[in-house]
Amino acid sequence: MIRVEAVSKKFGKLQVLQQVDLTCNSGECIALIGPNGCGKTTLIKSILNMVIPDSGRILVNEKDISGDYLYRSNIGYMPQIGRYPENMNVGQVIETIQTLRGADKAVDTDLYDAYQMSQLLSKRMNTLSGGTRQKVSAVLAFMFNPGILILDEPTAGLDPLAAEILKEKIMAEMQRKKLVMITSHLLSELEDIVSEVVFMQDGSVAFHKSNAALKADTGKDSIAKAISHILREQAS
Ligand SMILES: Nc1ncnc2c1ncn2[C@@H]1O[C@H](COP(=O)(O)OP(=O)(O)OP(=O)(O)O)[C@@H](O)[C@H]1O
Question: Which of 95, 100, 106, 160 is deepest in the core (most CB within 10 A)?
Answer without folding.
Answer: 95
